[in-house]
Amino acid sequence: MSDLFDEVALAYDQTWTQGWNGRGQRRRVWEYLSKLGTDLRVLEVACGTGEDALFMSELGWEVHATDSSERMIEQAKKKCASAKSVIFDRLDLMALDRTDISGKFDLVFSNFGGLNCLSARQLHDFKLFASEQLSPTGSLIFVLMPRRALLERWYNLLKRRPNSRVSEGVARVRLVDNEVETFYFDPDFIIQQFSDFQVQDVRALGFVPSYFSDPNSRKASLDPLWRGLDFLMRTLQVGPSRADHYLIHLKRPKKNV
Ligand SMILES: C[S@@+](CC[C@H](N)C(=O)[O-])C[C@H]1O[C@@H](n2cnc3c(N)ncnc32)[C@H](O)[C@@H]1O
Description:
By secondary structure, the chain is of the alpha/beta class. 35% of the residues lie in helices and 23% in strands. S-adenosylmethionine binds next to helix 3.
């Protein structure tokens, strides 16, 4: 069965991964990951075109990378053809009962909004699944989109448009021919949902929504303005709930003995 994200798999790297905004935000994720240590076993969900799987394999980590989109996995496999410690699998986060993946991973990782495709209910099921996959000292690292991204809010106010991200926490986001439901989760909500984990870190990664910097969008003609605002907001350390994406690191608490 084809997946909604199949239709963006070919263009994804050009529109996000290779642009200034995608590169900048991903670089900040990599800076964080590279401090975590060596020899980790990672389960990556919603891996997309495999940019992070390749990076983590270069850190010497063993990576089990998954996505629901066959075309995304195809791109990822091409990119990681010479990487030794990566395997790929299809895994639909909305059909977790159908997977036979089971391992004691040091890290369950998802970058750039893969988990924003889940409703709060599905996120709860994912939490149970991820908890089962983790070793007793394992971590979760997610990169997510919050509800109140500041630049988008200003932009919508300027355009006098309602912002369903804020009012309902869900928006229908156009891919190419299809729309995908996108759910926005603030850091506080994630912390509450994963309350049996300890919060290690929550940080903003960047402030410019991906569709502002997409080279195919008219908004990209204002790139110098977006870059300037992004720099300013990072310098002022505007909080993660006002960012385009934020990183949250949750860790299993040490059990009392
Ligand atoms: C915005 S992309 C992020 C890709 C990648 N993590 C990155 O950092 O570039 C979102 C990804 O989530 C995947 N995805 C969406 N819904 C999914 C689901 N139900 N199960 C698994 N993956 C899903 C898409 O196929 C897509 O690859």
